[in-house]
Amino acid sequence: MIGVTDAHPVWSGDTGLARERSDLSWGRTLLSVMTVTALFLRWLPEYGGGVLLPVVFGILAGLGLVRLRHGRRAEVFAGHGDAVVEVFGLTALVLLVGLAGLVLITIGVPG
Fold it and tell me: What is the pLDDT, as a whole number, of residue 12?
């Protein structure tokens, strides 16, 4: 694991504020991604019901990441874990939301 030695965990010299800021930034980022996902609803009149698929997927994936993050929070705060799964999940969610937007703009919804 990068940044962790056997004697000193990553958060060993931290007074607690960095962990709280990190947790708050996760919340803000997920809220931003879910908001952008909800913006697909603006395209509902133009593209029809096919727009609901990325909205539902984005909201479910975002809620899944929130649940995963809350489940691992104590472990990460204790300095015994890392957030690799959450980072990859959030990255995939952002890329899929962007890809869905590009698909809707360039080729539209089939049907």
Answer: 59
